[in-house]
Fold this sequence. Notes:
Elements: E1 8-10, E2 18-20, E3 24-27, E4 32-36, E5 48-53, H1 55-59, E6 71-75, H2 77-83, E7 84-85, E8 90-93, E9 95-96, E10 105-107, E11 112-117, E12 121-126, H3 133-140, H4 147-152, E13 154-155, E14 159-160, H5 163-167, E15 170-173, H6 176-221, E16 229-231, E17 239-241, E18 245-248, E19 260-262, E20 279-282, H7 284-289, E21 298-299, H8 301-306, E22 311-312, E23 317-320, E24 328-330, E25 338-340, E26 344-347, H9 356-365, H10 368-377, H11 387-391, E27 394-397, H12 400-443
Parallel strand pairs: 5-11, 20-25
Antiparallel strand pairs: 1-2, 3-15, 4-12, 5-6, 7-11, 8-10, 8-12, 9-14, 13-14, 16-17, 18-27, 19-26, 20-21, 22-25, 23-24, 23-26
Helix pairs in contact: 6-9, 6-12
Amino acid sequence: xxxxxxxxxxxxxxxxxxxPEHWEENKLKYMAYVKSSNVDKKVEEDEQEVSLxxxxxxxxxxxxxxNIKFMKATxxxxxxxxFELQAGDVIITKDSETWDDIAVPAYVPYKLAKVxxxxxxxxxxxxxxxxxxxxxxxxFSSNGIRDQFMVSANGITRFGLSISSLKTALFPxxxxxxxxxxxxxxxxxxxEIDSLIADKExxxxxxxxxxxxxxxxxxxxxxxxxxxxxxxxxxxxxxxPEHWEMKxxxxxxxxxxxxxxxxxxxxxxxxxxxKHNSIKVYNQRNVxxxxxxxxxxxISLEKYGELKSFTVYPGDILITTRGTIGKASIVPDNTExxxxxxxxxxxxxxENYALPRLIEEIFNETYLLFNQILYESNATTIDVIYSETxxxxxxxxxxxxxxxxxLKKIDESKEFYEGLIKKIQNQVINLKQYRQxxxxxxxxxKIDVREYExxxxxxxx
Length: 461
């Protein structure tokens, strides 16, 4: 339990609340030099070669250091003088797609020669007599203080902060020696928490892989350890039970002409076509989330008349064909009438021959089909699945009754491992909330860390 300061006063700032009596509140412009970068990504022959610290470098990293692979560019001498990164600098993202994800900070622990603060970012350089860069970095990370940037962000589809709103933002300003104590405390505590979060996220990855291996074993070897086996003829599948068959996807489908259907071409269905409110357009998000009630894209009844052959029906398996490819989801009963998005493919499986749920699991929880796609495309990464490729993918197929038994085992295994994963994910959420709470309490003076000693810290559970 951390102690509080002896006495407090009202900061006059709703999102900060009380602060220690001897602290001040200051606008950022009185604590640091704030400037917006205009250094672009172009390469000009008459300029000097530099490296650029860009938006994603800041957004995804707390610390900007030489471990980051910076973009190469060029800049004028005056730009290098103004925006070369110095020890103690704080870099802020100035815009975002959402108003509540703005002013994300990163800290520069040491000088980075010829590395410049890039476009869409702001550079905050503390006045050494008034403030410490490490404290400002933590303050930008704090709930409460961040609220004022959310309020001042302007935009409709993309939100931005003006330099004026950054400069006039209010920050608690303790004495310099206390800023250092707070920064030291938070450096140690957040590092401790981050290490624990990283361990738990690695454990989640291992559990996900183990779940996939259990499911892969079930759909390629069956559940009987004593069954006679034979070579499948496919290297990454290996042996399968000798009474199973290897079947191409096309032989599992109904005989109807449209039993496999790729979404309409881009010219057939444009973004302008999807601004109506009659017939839904199911997209990749519906498949990823296995949620067919969400979505905002609709076409008119007239347009539906043109695209009726792309209708989605209950029991169809929808497969993502672009971006994150090869994810599958079965259309549930009572699903709202709709059509395929151009980034989806629909297949319809013969009844009492292959279980749609088993095919869905093979797509989502094993690498069997994805490996075949890579092999057929002679590539290490792929962006698109074509219908001809999908039709010729091969899966091991047991009898229909055995499929049901295997699927039941898969469901049991998934319930067990996903329960463990969910529990650890909740622990990660709690740790991140605890981290955020510590930052807020320290930079606003709700706890007194002036005498904090890391070796005496309590151990995290």
